[in-house]
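During the no-cost extension, the postdoctoral fellow (Dr. R.K.) reprocessed legacy sequence entries with the updated structure-token encoder. One reprocessed record is reproduced below for audit purposes.
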Amino acid sequence: MPRIAARANHAFFAASVLALTAMGAGMAANDQIMNEAKADHQRQMEELENRMPLGPLRAKSLGLTPRWQLDAPDPIVQFFPHNAGVFTINQHNELSKISGDKGTLLWHTHGGNSADQIIDVIAIDDIDRILIVRTTSVLTISNSTGNPSFIGEARSSLQQLQWLADTTGVVDGPYLIYGGLSGEIVWQGYTHGFTEGAHRIGRRVATPPVISDTLVIAGSASGTIFGLDVKRRSKRWTVSLLAAPTAPLTVHGQLLFVASKDQHLRAINTDTGVVEWARLLESPLQHGPYAAADSVYQQVPDRGLVCLEARPKHAPEGMERWTAPTVTGNVIADKDGMLITWDADKRVMQSVSASTGVVEATAAIPEALNVTADGDLIYILGHSTRLQLLRLGSGD
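Re-encoded structure tokens follow.
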């Protein structure tokens, strides 16, 4: 009996060893599968990082969520965001409409011939039309199909411009308002096909016009800001600067913020034209300001990003809140207390705390040729054929 028991115990021990060996082999196999899966996932993420102008890992660090990427067959030379998507122009002046939700091509058409310079593309949703603004003319097409379509009494899809266009424009009712090549602010009646009027503000328009209530506001290269009555097309007020303003002009509430090469950032009351405050900064300003909530942000050369109170009390010289010396870009978007900045020269994007100026993350985008924000949507054009859309925040 003891021998039988000993043999049984030996057999049981051997079986246990085999079972443990098999279990170990199974665990090792599972570990190998998991490691291979992790390695495969890592390869996929690295591939996405290399295939996108701003890959998901760098985007996440900035608080951005990639939505889609379009790989265009031809180089994109211009693009114009719209709330229902984006319009792209290639080197042949062909216009494409891209859907905003999936980045798919909706239609493709001609925006002009090789001699045309396309300045702006404006969608007017309530009449299903798009205005393609060229230097010498406006082409109107259907927003649904891309086919040439006239509007109202115009009776032709092609409208010749009496004053050559030099800036992007804004739409006010039946009028396209743009800056002319010889210094005019022009009202083009796109519903009937001819120019209604113009007001000359200088030898050249330095900033694209913006609308604020009943005013259209623009700056001249000689350094004068004009507030023009949008209906009467007459001057309501002017503000003289010491040098040319830098684009863009920023309207925020009832304030117009203007950066100038005379080193000043000014806040102008849009109703009265009164300068509420003016801040003298260290260098001629090269970029326009960005306003959000109760703050205005200005990039100052050799100093960094400066945050000021939008409406300080009893402070005619303005009131600074903080300076971020390591931020070299301009603010292009904001959401939930976070700013996104873009430095086009260094091709660097940063996320910055709106309350403190602390840099949360930095990402280089070496292939980016153009970065444009539309609200909390950010478009990046990379390698001339890759157009990427990202959203600031979770992307919901």
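The chain has a mean pLDDT of 91. Helices lie at 2-51, 56-62. The remaining legacy entries will be reprocessed before the final report is submitted.
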